[in-house]
Amino acid sequence: MTSSPPGVDSTKLGRDVFVVAGVVVLGAIMSILDVTVVAVAQPTFMSTFDTSAAGAAWSMTGYTLALAAVIPVSSWAASRFGTKRVYMASLVLFLIGSVLCALAWNIGSLVAFRVIQGFGGGLLMPIGMMIMTRAAGPERVGSVMAVLGIPMLLGPIMGPILGGWLIEIASWHWVFLINVPIGIIALVYAFMALPGDDQEPGKKIDIPGLLMLSPGLALFLFGVSSSADERTFNAPRVYIPMIIGAALIATFVWHALRTKHPLLDLRLFRNPTLRIAIITMSLFAIAFFGASLLYPQYFIVVRGETTLMAGLLLAPQGLGAMLTMPIAGKMTDKIGPGKFVLVGLVLIAIGVGMFISLGTDTSYWYLCGALLIQGLGMGMTMMPIMSAALATVRPSEIADGSTLMNAIQQTASSVGTAVITVIFTTMLLPLSRAMMQAGGDPEKTMNAMVENGVNVKDPVAVGQAGQSTLADIASTYGDTFIIATILVALTLIPAFFLPRKKMEVHTDVETREEKVLDPLG
Length: 521
Description:
It is built from 23 helices and no strands. By secondary structure, it is mostly helical. Helix 5 runs antiparallel to helix 9, helix 13 (about 295-300) packs across helix 14 (about 305-315) and helix 16 runs antiparallel to helix 17. The longest helix has about 30 residues, at about 460-490. The radius of gyration is 23 Å and the shape is globular. The protein starts with 14 loop residues before the first helix and ends in a 26-residue tail after the last helix.
């Protein structure tokens, strides 16, 4: 990384950076798309493998837990073997997992192969972020994050469209096989385009830290994700793994602050800009990613749209993000993220708030306009926050900074999804809850009506029950968006303290004293 000559825009990305960006974006697209594409295939897995909704959901839960377990080793692996080798190994592991998933013969084998896939996918984003940040330099990290943010924002939108289309024209196997050509291209591209980097062959992994943090994150997220099935956090299956996981994470924090070379250097929190950025990002991820789960559900459950159509209706959100993200990224490098993030959060709060008035016949023009406003805000928010965190760390701290960001984002997103899901299901009337659990199955729907006192022999009563159920579900979606809007608004508090001028870039030439036994310095 070299500084730009006098008179040259130091924030402009060169051709070499875009070449590297192509590799990283391909990997990110695979990893992120895979999460949303598989979500679309859940009903197909239930019928193909003759399993329940809870059983099919393990195809997503297993992947998420594998991500959580492997992300903490990203920093050590990058230092020990070099980012290029680790990135290519991750692609290979992801490809092997994808092929095995397509060959699955029952739900158990599918879940096992999804775990393998998750071990590869979990390294792609943090390692890719390290590669991009090092290639561009800290003074251009905002522009870099804008490039990397494209798959992060479009994945949740394109996933349902791609998944629905593949299942419709081919079979569920292609949900996984689609990764093979993309992965091979990315692998060859990575081999040719990624530069080699420094390695530390003698660097030892922090075994005690690994045994605390990886299982701690996995257990905590397992408990959190289980709350969606239990419809409450007050269930042993939810709070027991959450408590054990939180205890392991807390033990790791104590260990990391007293160890010279921990698995993840938490002393980075001494950096005030990084600290504020991570707090802001955590609140934003809880609020936004939790609410994002509800949009396609509303279109499918209440409005009766197909998965493909629901994905297309979400397109304005991606369009809005694509309009503002490149501008916000470049301007973040020049004037800091503070101003853009505040405006972006206000736009998101307005867009989410517009969904409070949801009904069974709310205008699609109104809803798409709300999604467009959200998208404009998204492009000005998520990646500038990440830029604020990484722009002020030293080159030698990029690996730890990237790993820390990804681990916290994954955890916060899962917490947000669980919290919003529990709030939504708790507020539903008993009949509405039973009807949603029926998943459109005629026999289960009739059984749900009978259990809730509906005379299924009377067509009028059945019709009225269906209409009242849809109205209740739509109203509950709107009520849940009140909570989501409040959570987005709360994110404004830490965002207010983000830098509003060009951020100071640190180099490894500077020295600092590490006080291992005094974590607060």
